[in-house]
Structure formats: structure tokens, C-alpha cells
Amino acid sequence: MREWKFQTTINRRITGTRMAFTYRETQIVKGMLERGDKQHDIASYFGVNGGRVAEVASGKCDYPNAQPWPQGKLPPPGPYVGAKTVFEIKIALQEAIELIETAGSHSDESVVAIEALKAAMTKI
Question: Can you count the helices (H) and strands (E) in the chain?
Fold first, then answer.
């Protein structure tokens, strides 16, 4: 009996298997292309090489007959924030935390601000 496992881009990257899109991802890519998104923005959204998006656009993918995902269910259009920008945001948040902590004021507002900044850092 064959065991079927739902594949995502992330678990394919972990297991080292081919980086082709799943059926659902192919539908989303097609929907994004239909909407007019740039191929490099789509690749950035999925964290893959732009060649994977080009394969879907040309029909040379695993699911050439997949229907585009409905426009109302697509992720927002790009451009998307890259890893470098996320890293820079984390540095800026850490610097803000340090600035508040060294300002000398330990008011309730500063404690709340520090907690909010730390919570923001965990989300990115």
C-alpha cells in the first residue's frame, strides 16, 4: 500500500527532493501569472528559483492542465520582502529595544514598548 504525503515547498527543501510545485502551488502560480504578477515576485513568494515559475508559465511543469487559483483567494501581489530586508528589520528592532532599555526610563510605557518590539521580532 502506497503512503501519500502532502508535499510543500518547505518539506521538499528539507528532504532534498525535486523543487517542482505541487498541484495546489501550480494553481496559485497560474492565478498569480493570470493576475499579471511578475515571475520573479512569484518565485520570491514561494522561495524558489525563477525557473520553476517559468516552467509553469510555459506549461512544461508537472501539472500543465491545472486550473488557475481563484483571484479572490490569491496572496497579495508582490513585490515581497526579501531575506536581506527581513534581516535589516530585525537589526532595527533590536536597536530600538536597546535604545529604550538604555534610556533610563523604566515606565510602564517603555516596558510595553519593549515587549511589543520583542513580539514583533519573533514574527519575522
Answer: 6, 0
User: How many CB atoms neighbour CB 3 within 10 A?
Assistant: 4
Cα-Cα-Cα-Cα torsion 107, 113, 116, 121, nearest 10 degrees, comes to -120
Helix, strand and coil percent figures for the chain, each rounded to 5: 60, 0, 40
Rg (C-alpha) for the chain, rounded Å, is 20
pLDDT of residue 8: 55
| Average pLDDT per block of 10 residues along the chain, 124 residues long | 48 56 97 97 92 96 96 94 88 91 83 90 84
Sequence-separated (6 or more) residues with CB below 8 Å from residue 18: 12
Helices (H), 1-82: 9-15, 23-35, 39-46, 50-58
pTM for this one? Answer: 0.64
